[in-house]
Amino acid sequence: MAKSKREKLVFDVRPWVETLGLANIIEQIGEKQVIEQIGEKQVIKQIGEKQVIKQIGKKKVLEELDVDDLLANLPLAKRRELQRRLQEGQPNATN
Known about the structure:
The chain is an all-alpha fold. It has helices at 14-20, 22-29, 31-38, 40-47, 49-56, 58-64, 67-73, 76-88. Helix 1 packs across helix 2.
């Protein structure tokens, strides 16, 4: 039995994008579906983590973090600075 090699169907969508506009095409497909196809990590990589955090808001991002996760992922210097500031805020703290 002969095996047939299937070729992937490829067509140039650039003329559609130029005519309709990318925003219009994405709106018709649906933003959620586009993100699912591209992948969330790839979208964040393209936008940039700092820009994503700026868009969401630092306060909202921090609210989503667990205290243990926050402390475990702080660099040592920032963890020490946080500890120093917390101790300064306590009246009976000893250095």
